Amino acid sequence: AQNKAKKLEQEAEDKIRDLDKEVALFAIGHMLDRMRDDYKGCPKVLDYLNEVQNDIVEHLDSFKRAAAQPEGAADGQLALMQALGQGEPSFDQYKVNVFITNGHVEGAPVVIENNPTYYNLVGRIDYDAKFGVMTTNFNLIKPGAIHKANGGYLILQALDLLMNFQSWDALKRVLKSGEIAIENIGDQYRPIPTSTLKPEPIPVNVKVVIIGNPMIYHLLYAYDEDFAKLFKVKADFGPEMNRSDEHVREYASFITARVNETGLRHFHKSGVAKIVEYGSRLIENKKKLSTRFIEISDIISEASYWAEKDNSENVMARHVEKALHEKKYRSSMIEERLQEMINDGTLLIDTEGTVTGQVNGLSVLDIGDYMFGKPSRITAKTFVGQSGVTNIERETAMGGPIHNKGVMILAGYLGSKFATDKPLSLSASITFEQEYGGVEGDSASSTELYAILSSLADVPIRQDLAVTGSVNQKGEIQPIGGVNQKIEGFFDVCRLRGLTGGQGIMIPHQNVKHLMLRNDVIEAVKNGKFHIYPVRSIDEGIEILTGMEAGIKDENGKYPEKSIFGIVDRKIAQFADIMRIYGGGEERAAGKAGRMGMAAEGIDEK
């Protein structure tokens, strides 16, 4: 009888359970069926809905369980009761983790990831700590930037990407496999494997745009074999554009957009014109405009500030000039100290008179956010010998390779100009006086050549002129960089000492198009107080510096006697004769000194 009662009880429970299932299916079946119709083209969704239905039917007790929460129970007690299967069930397993939704996005998603760490790129699995135990579930799976950009574009900074651990390798792995798997870094390096979630890989169709400087691009191209395979399209963004009417209008549009975005004061046409001039100065070319819009934006903001301080409704040209002046003032401390040292005679620079074998050269110092020109005294000494042109900076390891190359070119020029019919028996030493930081670049090679020619001819050079420009072996003057800073640097020295009207600077003629000078320099040139001489060759330059004819060979291959080149040619011939006498092997020791003395006297008379 007891067994029969238990059997009847079991049958009753089974019938009640079946009835509960029928009720549950009746309650949820039509809702799931409607969803099945909506997703009938997605087999995986249909499988998921079937699994949800089966799980609900199998766990009906969870839905029927009353919320048994004793009054006054603390949060920790409730959490413990839930962990022990008591209290209100959470139903977390029925939640949907909406991983990514682009319903609010028009067109393909464009994601800019400013901090491309491993987890920010490929996503992560978070954990909750409960009673000292770390637990997780599918609701704690978080997306990364690649998930958000799937079907669209992902934009990354190259340097940030490479500096974050595992980010570069993870990105390459995704692009090569065409799918992204979420896996925490700790799971990859844990010595003992532990049970955790392993989400199914997601197919990826994304275009990745990496922004970086040319050096990073070439390093990756050379040392990472995957880089050329994965990133096939290279786009160079130039730092300049033509100064056309269209681009000037776009500059004005950019100024307006910047004003509207940040609530600045509107610009008058004179202020816009000054901004355009500044854009040309940044690129050092009056036919070009800079595309370094961050610097342009800074000047726009600062000019608006000065217009506000001036109670001006619009930003005028004077406000832009004030902003540029203040920007220069904040960065020009080193330049001012050097100008003071030149003015008080600590650094030796002459701006008047004439000196033999001495020329004012010009260099550019770059301290990162500011560049300025610095005059330097370049001197040359010549004497009998066969060592050629000796660069003291090279001998002391203070000269860079480009500077050393420029000096070595001088020997080629002198040889082709004066030693086609005689040996070049010459020793010359050249140096930048009071230069202790090293020299690089060939922009002073023409200056050094003028100093050597002056020393050989014993003809003084004007000290109220400064010189810049490189030279080739044919004596042609070649363009250089930083021409505006060099001109302004020497102009400031002359202005502090007083402009005489004869001071100026010689530049390569190719650099005329790069002139974007300060207003005070332009006014001084207009009024004849300062001069800029564009030159094409050494012949033109030496004539300006000495006031003498350079000299052209006649039909007999001789230079005019009173020309610079004629005097130099005779001096080199004298050096060759002296070397022949001192180096000859036919003299005997007894009479050698007398014969050399007579030969030397004959040379002097000649």
Q: Explain this structure to me?
A:
With 606 residues, this protein is α/β, with parallel strands linked by helices. 49% of the residues lie in helices and 15% in strands. It has 24 helices and 22 strands. A seven-stranded mixed beta sheet has the order 15-16-14-13-18-21-22, with helices on both faces. A hairpin with a 5-residue loop joins strand 19 and strand 20 (477-478). Helix 13 packs parallel to helix 15 (317-331) and helix 19 crosses helix 22 (538-546).
Kindly list the characteristics that best describe this protein.
single chain, 606 residues, alpha/beta, seven-stranded mixed sheet, three-stranded parallel sheet, 49% helix, elongated
Q: How many E strands?
A: 22
Principal-axes shape call: elongated
Q: Report strand order across the widest sheet.
A: 15-16-14-13-18-21-22
In percent, how much strand structure appears in the residues? 5-15%
Return Rg in Å: 41 Å
The class by helix and strand makeup works out as alpha/beta
Number of helices: 24
Uncertain residue segments: 585-606
